């Protein structure tokens, strides 16, 4: 495996068993990952609050106090940090909970680095795909919003200047070009100006 690919990949390993934590962290560091560790959910949350943003978190499910699943739900809902789970036993209910809260992988302990690295690589690849889909979705949403705003601005211009749709669009396009602005930006200004006029009346 080419560790150079992983050089920049950072992992957060959360496990209450110090020996497991030290052994796995050491193995993953040797495999080329940048590894941070925490012995509890509270310690992991303190790292996150301090600005730590791992590419992947690896969480032990069963820990005294708060469980790894609790942290998993926070990572999924608020921090947008991908994670996988480790557990001491295979339990269908935990597998279902793990899937429901967005886990990208699930391994039964004891694990060694040879097992863990392929699972980490698969989880990182999946996380990258999901991020790409989110970005594409956001870009599509932005494009739809722009289209909607341009359509509204065309409608306002048609009414204001008693123009047909094509003529109103051309007028907006020429204005945007002369002001060296994007049409979508001008459209937002037209909508805001119209709303302010309506509020004034």
Description:
This protein is an alpha/beta fold and 201 residues long. Helix 5 crosses helix 6 (165-178), helix 5 packs across helix 7 (183-200) and helix 6 (165-178) packs across helix 7. The radius of gyration is 26 Å and the shape is elongated. A 5-stranded parallel sheet has the order 2-1-3-4-5, with helices on both faces. The chain has 7 helices and 5 strands; from the N terminus they run βαβαβαβαβααα. Strand 4 (83-87), helix 4 (92-100) and strand 5 form a beta-alpha-beta unit. The relative contact order is 0.09. It has 2 domains: 3-111, Response regulator (Rossmann fold, 3-Layer(aba) Sandwich), CATH 3.40.50.2300; 137-200, Arc Repressor Mutant, subunit A (Orthogonal Bundle), CATH 1.10.10.10. The chain is 62% helix and 11% strand.
């Amino acid at each position: 495996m080419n560790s150079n690919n992983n050089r920049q990949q950072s992992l957060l390993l959360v496990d209450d068993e110090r020996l497991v934590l030290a052994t796995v962290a050491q193995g993953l560091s040797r495999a080329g990952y940048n590894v941070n560790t925490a012995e509890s959910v509270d310690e992991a949350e303190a790292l996150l609050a301090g600005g730590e943003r791992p590419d992947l978190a690896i969480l032990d499910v069963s820990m005294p106090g708060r469980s790894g699943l609790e942290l998993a739900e926070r990572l999924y809902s608020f921090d947008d940090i991908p994670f996988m789970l480790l557990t001491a036993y295979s339990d269908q209910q935990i597998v279902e909970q793990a899937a429901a809260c967005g886990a990208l992988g699930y391994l039964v302990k004891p694990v060694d680095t040879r097992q863990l690295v392929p699972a980490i690589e698969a989880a990182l690849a999946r996380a990258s795909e999901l991020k790409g889909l989110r970005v594409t979705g956001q870009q599509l949403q932005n494009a739809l919003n722009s289209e909607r705003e341009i359509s509204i601005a065309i409608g306002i211009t048609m009414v204001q200047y008693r123009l047909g749709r094509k003529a109103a669009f051309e007028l907006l396009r020429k204005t945007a070009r002369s002001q060296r602005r994007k049409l979508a930006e001008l459209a937002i200004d037209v909508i805001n100006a119209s709303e302010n006029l309506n509020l004034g009346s």
